[in-house]
Amino acid sequence: MAAVVADQALDNSNVSSIKSLADSQALNSVPSAYAFNINPNDEADPNDPEFAIPIVDMSLLTSGSPDERAKIIRDLVKICEEWGFFIAINHGVPESLMKGMIDACHGFFSLPDEEKKEFKSGNDVLEMFKYGTSYNLALDKVLLWRDFFKVRTHPEFFSLYKPASFSETSLEFSRRSREVALEITRAISESLGLEPDYIYNTMNMDRGLQLLAGNYYPPCPQPEHAIGIPHHTDHGLVTLLIQNEMNGLQVEHNGKWLTVNGPKNGFFVNLADQMQILTNGKYKSVMHRATVNNKATRISIAIPHGPSVDTIIAPAPELCEREGQAPKYLAMNYKEYIQLQQSGKNYMKSTFDHIRA
Ligand code: OGA
Ligand code: NI
Fold first, then answer.
1. Which of 55, 233, 285, 315 gives 327 a disulfide partner, CB atoms 3.0 to 4.6 angstroms apart?
2. Residue ranges, the chain, pLDDT below 70
3. Distance in angstroms (rounded) separating the CA atoms of residues 345 and 347
């Protein structure tokens, strides 16, 4: 039976969703169209102190003493240079809202495929919303073990209109997540020795792009032979991510893949390409990927935050001057950058490699 599924899946136009494939078959192996090998030797030992994931207590940024705030900002320098990743705790977004958002995503993915298809659209990241499987069926050489939706939630708020509760929950969740992301960009500005509003102002974040992206990874019979999302960096400034009770996100650190496991109710925070460009390579857009498992469905929600789409991003002149460095990246409009990333030329590469000066 699995062989038949594999043959069908080779013609990508037949693929409707990984959920229906996983639901409908007693699959005991990964169909060949999904074959992707993970090398277990590349994985980090989570008990090795070298791989202790940095934790940032957001309450010390928002209501700590000046000394406490200054210490967090000093810590951030190292975290952003060495990791480009941390877990934000005490961020103020209620646990019930985070859970409600996961439940709303679960509700959406549980709709019949026919209903979800109403949300299908082109491949432009700037669509109001889109739903699909894999990454881009027209381009993917290996199919990904995931279904997804993406909704644009800022500067204008859009929403899926099913299930009924989705809109209200995502409005509140995206608003509260944005506050956390903006607090992080203020702290990062300060960590660079710039005014707290430097990134907000130069990146036109009053009109900044925010997306809400839901990922659905059903159980996979051979998790080491499939991939949820292969390694990539995100295109914006900073991405927040939450998940249900299943782990799967891995970040690259010191040449190894580390499975992110941390305090429940924390936000996983990764720096993205525009932050690396703006800081002229000082801060790191972390390489990451999503693995799958054979036990239970994993749902993750990534909330990328970027500049406004018309912003031209280049290394900050203030930083280049101070460090006596020439800009390492060419200036580029954010929307064009996103289009370059989505064009498929950069599959499993960093887009910013294309704009090195
Ligand atoms: C993403 C992403 C990781 C995950 O959606 O860009 O990296 O754990 N997701 O789902
Ligand atoms: Ni990502």
1. 315
2. 1-14, 123, 125, 344-354
3. 6
* Three-state SS annotation for 196-259: CCHHHHHCCHHHCCEEEEEEEECCCCCHHHCCCEEEECCCCCEEEEEECCCCCEEEEECCEEEE
CB 151 within 8 A of CB 161: no
Number of helical H runs and strand E runs in the chain = 11, 14
pLDDT, tens digit, for every residue of 29-60? 999 999 999 998 999 999 999 999 999 999 99
Distance CA 223, CA 131 (A): 24
252 lines ligand 1 (CB under 6 A): no
Q: Is 303 in the pocket of ligand 1 (CB under 6 A)?
A: no
Question: Which pLDDT score, from 0 to 100, does residue 4 have?
Answer: 39
Q: What confidence score (pLDDT) does residue 354 get?
A: 66
State the SS3 of 17-54.
CHHHHHHHCCCCCCCHHHCCCCCHHHECCCCCHHHCCC
Residue among 300, 305, 277, 274 nearest 289 (CA): 300
Closest atom, ligand 1, to C-alpha of 260: 8
Given ligand 1 and candidates 220, 234, 300, 348, which is best to mutate, with the most ligand atoms within 8 Å of its CB? 300
